[in-house]
Design a protein that fits this description.
single chain, 241 residues, alpha+beta, Gyrase A, domain 2, Cyclophilin, 2 domains, four-stranded antiparallel beta sheet, 5 helices, 24% helix, 29% strand
């Protein structure tokens, strides 16, 4: 692993909270480094919780921070150890998505705006492997990077007040799945019969930062079958090898 991604800024946000930032755009290399650092730092007795974002880690500590240099040296030491090994992270998940019009209210308009045929939009969207950068906004909402540039589309000028749960959308340079009904400004191009967040399961969301995701086009008949299996507890999503 490239060892040149050193932390460039450390901020004490609270006597027991430290924000560590790296330079760089979201990438698999960046998220891999952050995930591995998070795992290593979580073993430290002083670290109570770590929150991961695109290019940063927020450390919540059990003791008052006396020196940023201590943590800078500690993190750089861990980075060096990580760079010497080819650690693997994450699982690959295939999420079925129905792109038919009853489940994709914005698909035709989005394709028109992008100067694409709807079939081409679906192909571009479903043939990409996306990286889970982190989970936020809503419980189970996966922030995914890797959307094909031909599908970059500004968010809606007027957000939708009630986006159905499990809707798949694109907005800006991102794509994702709404885990619950909520307002949203992304263009809805499909829907999955899966639930991305279930508080009764452990863990409540099957995916985590560092995983990869692809979307598998299905027809409405398959959608209804899987949806029924999900509701009855028969359908269990499994990672692909």
């Amino acid at each position: 692993m490239n060892s040149n991604l050193r932390p460039i800024r450390l901020f004490i946000l609270h006597p027991k909270a430290l924000l560590v930032e790296w330079k760089g755009e979201p990438s698999f290399l960046m998220i891999k480094k952050l995930v591995l650092l998070k795992r290593a730092l979580e073993k430290d007795a002083q670290v109570e919780r770590i929150t991961l974002a695109y290019n940063s880690l927020l450390l919540q500590l059990s003791k008052k921070i006396e020196s940023k240099d201590f943590w800078r040296e500690r993190i750089e030491q861990l980075e060096t150890e990580i760079s010497k090994n080819n650690f693997e992270i994450g699982s690959h998940w295939v999420i079925p998505v129905c792109y038919e019009k009853d489940y994709a209210p914005d698909l035709i308009a989005a394709a028109h705006t992008l100067n694409l045929k709807t079939d081409d939009l679906i192909e571009l969207h479903s043939q990409t492997s996306y990286v889970v950068n982190f989970i936020g906004f809503l419980p189970g909402f996966l922030y995914l990077s890797g959307l094909d540039k031909r599908l970059h589309l500004p968010r809606k000028e007027k957000p939708t007040l009630f986006v159905p749960s499990s809707s798949v959308g694109i907005g800006g340079n991102q794509t994702g799945v709404y885990p619950q009904e909520s307002p949203g400004g992304w263009h809805l191009i499909g829907k999955t019969p899966l639930s991305l967040f279930d508080p009764n399961h452990s863990p409540p969301c099957f995916a985590t930062a560092g995983d990869t995701i692809t979307f598998d086009p299905i027809d409405s008949k398959t959608f209804l079958r899987i949806e029924k299996e999900v509701h009855k507890g028969f359908f269990k999503i499994k990672p692909r090898v």
